[in-house]
Amino acid sequence: MLAGMKLIVKWLLLSAALLLVSQWDSGIEVRSFGSAMLASLVLGLLNAFVRPLLVLLTLPVTVLTLGLFLFVINAVTFQLASHLLSGFQVQSFWDALLGSVLYSLWGLVIDVALERLFDRGRKA
Fold first, then answer.
1. Nearest to 69 by CA among 59, 79, 78, 77
2. How many Å apart are CA 43 and CA 11, to the nearest integer?
3. Rounded distance between C-alpha atoms, residue 51 and residue 70, angstroms
């Protein structure tokens, strides 16, 4: 039950983070919170299923660039999500790159906060 609650809270917070990213980058448009929820769900699915395949296929390039090519893979995944959805639009590759970096940073902050919050709840 606690894991399900944590997943729902994380999804809502990532949706809010996507709305925030769209406010910071004019090349990213999210029409509504519902669109942000759908986009964060699609991004999560793409990161779970498509991104590992892209990482594997581009492993030599990733090694040669000392891992920096992973930023490109994240941007491509971000842009792919925008092509799949009508309420989430990314104008250019550079907007996708900036958006994916900002979204990833917010995701990291959210993960750390939720780990601390939900671990504290288990110990009590």
1. 59
2. 11
3. 9
Residues 109, 115, 116, 117, CA torsion sign: positive
100 in Cβ contact with 22 (< 8 Å): no
Token pair 């992973």 in the structure block, residue? 70
CB count in 10 Å sphere of residue 121:
11
Each domain of the chain, given as residue ranges in start order, spans: 2-123
- State the first-to-last Cα distance of the chain, in angstroms, to the nearest integer: 16
Name the residue type at position 21: V
Q: What is the pLDDT of residues 92-103, one digit of tens each?
A: 999 999 999 999
- Type of residue found at 33: F
Contact call for residues 86 and 116 (beta carbons, < 8 A): no
* Predicted structure pTM score: 0.92
